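Before a computer can learn anything about folding, someone has to put a protein's shape into writing. The outcome of that step, for a single protein, is printed below:
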Amino acid sequence: VQLLESGGGLVQPGGSLRLSCAASGSIFSIYKLGWYRQAPGNQRELVASITGGGSANYASFVKGRFTISRDNAKKAVDLQMNNLNAEDTAVYYCNAEGVVAAGIADGVFWGQGTQVTVSS
């Protein structure tokens, strides 16, 4: 099972970015897909997650700026980030929990991370 992320980059304060993540492998189902982030010197923290049924959970610092969406058929998750600020600068990681795949009953997987930099 692999998670492939895309969409990071450099954006000015107030700008927008869309992160995408697609899972590949012999996957039967994924309970929860989400995004975490880690800034230098900080612990990795949850940004947003979404279950297969569409129940979404957001960190308080998102404050309505970010939207998570999921395509179950494609085993993919997107994070639309609007009104970005410097505090959003971090490496963003895709996360999959409750993965059922060939030889895997309840796996947890991480992507390699994509850098998001908010700077003028």
Observations:
- The chain has a mean pLDDT of 96.
- The first strand starts at residue 2 and ends at 6.
- The radius of gyration is 14 Å.
- Residues 26 and 102 are 6 Å apart (CA to CA).
